[in-house]
What we know:
- With 186 residues, this protein is mostly helical.
- It has a single domain, classed as Winged helix-like DNA-binding domain superfamily/Winged helix DNA-binding domain (Arc Repressor Mutant, subunit A).
- It contains six helices and three strands, in the order H-E-H-H-E-E-H-H-H.
- Strands 1-3-2 form a three-stranded antiparallel sheet.
- The longest helix is centred in the last third of the chain and has 37 residues, at 149-185.
- The mean pLDDT is 81.
Amino acid sequence: xxxxxxxxxxxxxxxxxxxxxxxxxxxxxxxxxxxxxxxxxxxxxxxxxxxxxxxxxxxxxxxxxxxxxxxxxxxxxxxxxxxxxxxxxxxxxxxxxxxxxxxxxxxxxxxxxxxxxxxxxxxxxxxxxxxxxxxxxxxxxxxxxxxxxxxxxxxxxxxxxxxxxxxxxxxxxxxxxxxxxxxxxx
Length: 186
């Protein structure tokens, strides 16, 4: 498989995962305040810094399904001379959201364990030597409140840079070790 094919396959997998997350992301947003579909799409895009840009074709069918199942309620209103359906979460929706967040946390922990096993078993690297990526809960950006965004983002970027530098150093050492082992075998 060529790198281009691998990139496309990976992008397709991410897109499929995002489709499944729209339901929970929408409930998280509606748990904070009522919103119409476009506001939900915009908040998802903003919270993910443009990485995830849901479309109307992906969001509105989910909203209709959430309304049909009783997790949200929609009410038509006029905003800026346009009719829009504004949704709010129901008690049932709040309960299912809490369960979904717990399950997502369990999934993230399980995936981190799998990453560590892969590093150990396939890459022959001790996870303690290699800084393992922490799988973020896909909804963490939606659960955080806005506060000191600029200062917090700067601190986050500095921490990320430090983490990446350490990871690169560790990987470079591991690469040198692997090269030496290969040279001995030749």
